[in-house]
Amino acid sequence: MTALFPALRTEQAKLALRFGDRGLSYAQLAAVAGALAHELRSRGCSRVAVWATPSMETSVAVVAALLAGVPAVPVNPKIGERELEHIVSDSAPSLVLAAPGTDLPTALAALPRQDVELTGSATQLPEEPGEEAPAVIVYTSGTTGPPKGVVLPRRAITTTLDALRDAWQWTAEDMLVHALPLFHVHGLILGMLGPLRRGGTVHHLGRFSTAALARELAAGATMMFGVPTMYHRIATEVGDDRELASALRGARLLVSGSAALPVHVHERIAAATGQRVLERYGMSETLMNTSVRADGARKPGTVGVPLRGVELRLVDDSGTPIGDWDGETVGEIQVRGPNLFTEYLNRPDATAEAFTGSWFRTGDMATRDADGYVRIVGRKATDIIKSGGYKIGAGEIENALLEHPAVAEAAVTGQPDDDLGERIVAWVVPNGEPPAEQELADHVARLLTPHKRPRVVHFLDALPRNDMGKVMKRALDA
Fold it and tell me: What's the CA angle centered on 146, arms 140 and 150, to 5 degrees?
């Protein structure tokens, strides 16, 4: 038996979880999650859906399912009817776990329900299954079809969290604060299960605010996890907010993920606090692949080096590995290691297509420098623009646009062009009065090169984003 959370088996009085004014010690969490785990075992559950609100009940439900050896399927509370019907049909959960009194949508309300009560006691925790047993099934956002269920084994979770212990010097003394959703890898596996595996403490803010973040950091939190939209808000406020700047200055690690953090956000936070935000790179199918190390050089705009146990390579369009780490040559990231998922649920065709031999094809494009640092330039399908014979990453143009004082947000896509193959199109949320299109084109040409300038600029009130703050570029093109 390999225990996912050793601290639960020592019944410590130390605080494990806190949501608002509610908290559970490790001993209390072991009691309530253990009781629920035995209930799931006794009911013979094959899988359980978890109505994943940002709550104590969600955390207890997932821990209980993991203790019971029953795969958990976290469900986004804002999910649409069609996607939910697909997930329920595809994963076929035996029942749904939810907080008492929660109203569930029709597709889940039709299932047997088990309320997650923060009461009960387990005299002994169940024996946990082997490392290849399915632990969590996360549904990816569908771009060309319905979402696919990524089956993550216990092995992927433990190896990733232990590799992050090494990279981030993460210990039981750390206290993490975040406000991330609990139905994604970032918030649930890293942000909730990560501290519990270390025997540390996590405070979930519920809803993100800089005031709440500053309060928690000032009270002793040592780490923050966030997405770029959160760090953008911090960057706009920290220069004028002494309490926020002081609280951030005292943190051990500020970690950003789920999307690239613009370089100008890095610089504004560093100028006000002396802190360099640390970036890492992962996805549902692989959990974490790379990270800037806590004891390593910080290079804004990069996602660091491969984590312990992860092999990473870049390949060209023909699938040939790129041998030179020159920081310029763009290739697709392929990875292999114990952090990988087992399969797409009920989709052997998609699983086979995702691999070339033992290497997982991420679809992410990147460069790698002489020190091994990886810089993501975008998704192969949406962020690599082939214009005038050049292969151009949308990310560097977006960063250049964001350096213009009249640009608040920016996204870049490619659109078909008879002469160029694809023309570069910028989608800009202006900071006040929109600047002239030619002014932005000249700005990019001056910072980068002329062939990377936008040929078309659209001004918007806001960029379409998903729950994790990623810009939905297919929605822009549509």
Answer: 35
Q: Could you give the percent of the chain with pLDDT greater than 70?
A: 96
Q: Which two tokens stand for residue 324?
A: 């030179």
SS3 261: coil
**Joined tokens for residue 335:** 């990875």
For the chain, the 3-state helix, strand and coil shares in percent, each to the nearest 5, are 30, 25, 40
Exposure of 239 in the CB half-sphere (CA atoms within 13 A): 9
| Phi and psi, residue 132, nearest 5° | -90, -5
The residue assigned the tokens 């029942």 is: 95
Which CATH number applies to 384-477? 3.30.300.30
Rounded-to-integer distance, Cα 275 and Cα 248, Å: 7
What is the pLDDT tens value at each position of the chain, 478 positions in all?
A: 578 999 999 878 999 999 999 999 999 999 999 999 999 999 999 999 999 999 999 999 999 999 999 999 999 998 888 889 999 999 999 999 999 999 999 999 999 999 999 988 877 899 999 999 999 999 986 545 678 999 999 999 999 999 999 999 999 999 999 999 999 999 999 999 999 999 999 999 999 999 999 999 999 999 999 988 899 899 999 999 999 999 999 999 999 988 778 888 899 999 999 999 999 999 999 999 999 999 999 898 899 999 999 999 999 989 999 988 998 898 999 999 999 999 999 999 999 999 999 999 999 989 999 999 999 987 776 677 877 666 677 877 888 898 899 999 899 988 887 767 788 999 999 998 999 999 999 998 888 878 888 999 999 999 988 776 778 887 887 6
Q: Which amino acid is at 176?
A: L
> Considering only the top CATH level, what class is 6-168?
alpha beta
Gap between the Cα atoms of 379 and 141, Å rounded: 14
Classify 101 in phi/psi space as left (phi over 0), alpha (psi -120 to 50) or beta: left
CA-closest candidate to residue 239, choices 212, 270, 218: 270
Q: Phi and psi at residue 296, in whole multiples of 5°?
A: -110, 175
What is the bridge-based pairing of β-strands 223-226 and 201-204?
unpaired
Q: What is the C-alpha separation between 141 and 299, in angstroms, rounded? A: 30
* Surface-to-core class of residue 321, CB atoms within 10 Å of its CB (0-12 exposed, 13-18 middle, 19+ buried): exposed
- N-term to C-term CA, the chain: 50
Q: Where are the domains of the chain?
A: 6-168, 384-477
